[in-house]
Write a structure and sequence with these properties.
single chain; alpha+beta; 3 helices; 39% strand
């Protein structure tokens, strides 16, 4: 359980970073590789009259970048920065990190602005994955083992899950082994974002959730490198 007054978000959905002694969980979103054949097909279409304007509009409203992907974990909302990184304070000590990919989730309120847990919205597409931190007995090296799982049958999302607010068809999570090291700060494997994702819808839904959970009181924080706003409920 986590109080919503711990949420951090920057005005206009610019990522907000919180620094301190707490351990973190972090990952990077990367652009999904475009096949050479698809690139050639697009190049040929651009030569046709009217296609440049069409692709310009697509680039404006359907981003292919990795900045602006919304996610939640442990009662925190975060938005990926220009490099695609997202950072959460680490709130559980186990070696497993569930990943839920869906464009909608329902906060179940316990009292006032305290969220007891999240539930999947019926009828919405969802994919579930699990990252397990494991050790190879022979080499002594650590690695992440990514597997796909069934979505929670009763709809209740485990509290230690990272929820990525996007339609599953736009998100690619490679399965299998990724080498890592055992550290208090967890660095998860890269997750890939496909061209065509509409990040504006995810951002609008995130703002809807924040306003739904109560009135906001923005507090501006200035540092040497950036200006951010902490939204307090």
């Amino acid at each position: 359980m986590k109080h919503i007054n711990s949420l951090f978000i920057v005005a206009a959905l610019v990522p907000c970073y919180s620094f301190g002694a707490d351990n973190v969980i972090t990952l990077f979103f990367k652009p999904y590789p475009v096949e050479a054949q698809e690139a050639e097909r697009r190049q040929e279409k651009i030569k046709k009259p009217g296609k440049i304007a069409q692709y310009t509009m697509e680039a404006t409203f359907y981003q292919s970048g990795v900045a602006g992907v919304c996610a939640s974990y442990g009662g925190f909302f975060e938005v990926s920065d220009q490099s695609g990184q997202i950072i959460f304070p680490r709130k559980h000590s186990g070696p497993a990190v569930p990943i839920i990919v869906t464009d909608r989730a329902i906060p179940i309120i316990m009292f006032e602005q305290t969220v007891h847990h999240w539930e999947l919205e019926p009828g919405r597409s969802v994919q579930a994955f699990m990252y397990n931190l494991q050790k190879d007995d022979e080499s002594g090296l650590y690695f992440w083992n990514a597997t796909e799982r069934e979505a929670p049958k009763r709809g209740q999302i485990p509290v230690e899950s990272i929820i990525i607010f996007a339609k599953p068809k736009w998100v690619y999570i490679p399965l299998g082994i990724t080498p890592t090291s055992k550290e208090p700060n967890l660095v998860l494997p890269d997750i890939y974002i496909k061209k065509g994702i509409n990040l504006t819808k995810s951002a609008a839904y995130l703002l809807y959730l924040l306003h739904l959970l109560g009135p906001v009181h923005p507090v501006t924080r200035r540092s040497a490198n950036h200006l951010s706003t902490q939204v307090i409920y």
